[in-house]
Structure formats: C-alpha cells, structure tokens
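Reopening this one. Same input as before:
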Amino acid sequence: MSASKELYASMGWSQPLTKEDPIFEVGQRFTINYGCQKNLFGAWEIVDNIDSPHYLCVKVLKNGKLSKGKNLNCKRLFYVSDIKQALKTQNVE
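Same output, byte for byte:
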C-alpha cells in the first residue's frame, strides 16, 4: 500500500469499496450529449455490470455496431450516476 493510502486509512478516511446490485442490464444504451469532454459525446452501451456501481461501456458507432477500440475514447467505466444523468436527459428511466 502506498504511503498516502496508509495515511488516509490511519485517519479513518478510506472506505472499502462496496459492490451493489446492478441497476442497469448489459445491453442498455444511453447517449451523452452534455459536458465539456468531447470524447464522451455519443451513444454508449453497457457491456459489463459485474463491478456495479461501475459499468464497463463501449462506444456505439454510427452504423449501430460496437467499437472494437481499446483506448478511453471507445471503452470506459461509467459510474451509475453518470448513466442515470444521461438517461434523464433522454427522458428514459
């Protein structure tokens, strides 16, 4: 464990990561069209929900297929609140 992690743990600031039951199913698509990070804009699909509340998502291309890229522009972990916000702006829940 790094020195900074040990310091925070000794002060009681660290919390163990807790897994939650997944809210969203694999295959759920959502669109991000807000914010200032241009590489997040577009349609995404959830491909893995094992580490809920973090969801592994892949970018959906314009032809409807999933991107096969390995970088952060194509594959990314989204937190449940990010997905909820995207669905809220789409009026889908």
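So the earlier flakiness isn't reproducible anymore. For the record, The first helix runs from residue 3 to 10.
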